[in-house]
Amino acid sequence: MALMVSISGIRGIVGQDLTPHLILRTVCAFFHALETSVGGASRRRVVVGRDTRRSGEFIESLIAGSAMALGYETVSLGVATTPTVLLLAKKLACDGGIAVTASHNPPEWNAMKFCDSRGLFLTDPQIRVIEAAAGLATGGTRTCAAEDSGWKGFESVGSAIARDDAAYLHCEEVLRAIDRESIKRRRFKVAIDPGGGAGAVVGRLFLEKLGCEVVGVNEVPASQLPGGVFPRGTEPVPGNLGSLSDLVAREGADIGFAQDPDGDRLAIVSESAKAIGEEYTLVLAGEAFLRKNRTDVACNLSTSMMVDDLAERHGVAAERTRIGEINVTSKLLEKKLLFGGEGNGGVIVPGINPCRDSVVGMGLILELLAESGMTVSGLVESYPSYSMVKEKCRVPDMDRGVLHEKMLEWMPARFPRWKVNGIDGVKATGNREWVHLRLSNTEPVMRIIAEADTESRARELADIGRSFVEAVKP
Predict the structure, then answer these.
(1) What is the pLDDT of residues 201-212, one digit of tens each?
(2) Residues 351 and 431 in one domain
(3) What pLDDT, on the 0 to 100 scale, is given for residue 139?
(4) Same domain, 199 and 341
């Protein structure tokens, strides 16, 4: 296993790839980048927060101590969702921020995700500057001396501030942007499942502020559970949401919300206790937003065709980007679009928080339920139905660039009449169906995603995609 460096952060297995020494080098390189190439560091203030992995506490402490030793004021949030960290980076006038989380990876993993003073994740070129400065590239050597000469003397050592109001500030920011009164009048019963992650800190608080009756499952932090494991699968996909579905049925809830460990992704269970799939999150939140705002939308290549149906319904366009949250956010900001996200349950409204934010998703979807008078099942039935298959397999042992070139050769030959897009992996699109192959930014795997009118056809397309992997194995 090797350390993974991408726009999704610096991540690896704690103690194996992600060691204290490597964390120190990387943090120093980040602060050096802040001062030289990522907007400047005039305030010398950073914010740090973490999810509920056992390793998070010591990593947050290493980061905070390093920041102080480099002359920065450190605002420590403790357990906080990733969108909370990014929101506070801007709201507290910080030069940048670090979210300590490996998101959907297993508990033995952890990661550092970096943002700038605007609360935006760093772009790929900016991450590569940190990678080079810390000597993380294969065979690389450090290109800055921050680790050796950046330490401050007694008179210039920074300070540390611990804040316990981060979740409250996050909630208030979202509440200002939605019709909270219409939601309060409905007095919804909402079931929540933060999966033992950081979402437990903010989700219940937000929903109770909206006058909802809240019932929950898996709210105990993973760090407090035996072995430090998460109580269910980390991704909020239907196969991991049995307990939430049971809770919705038992309590007669109007809706169930599930999050991933760092609280940026959101999935839904309907009032009939069915996990509808995380692809519907962006569509339902988009329906709520586009009813009141006219804007084109942006999403990544692997997001469901339902987004195209959403855009067509409201007379706007849907733009596709490379995979990775910052790629979608960058498109939104570049084109001055007001809504977008990713099909993995990530809702982005840059006017509220320019990142995937499960709290924003909850607010918009409850607003839609309140103002439409419809149930989740009724809203789902109002959209065309597709089947999507998401799989992953081990990456063949070869250079990633060479593998990508082979994909670019293989896909047009296999689908000669289909439109082929090679901006991120390779995606082939036919008549209302598609298959997408790409190397993951967060795991050492290849992701295979296919969508079609029927599950059997989607699985057939995914199998064709998997045949490429078999064909190129050494």
Answers:
(1) 999 999 999 999
(2) no
(3) 47
(4) yes
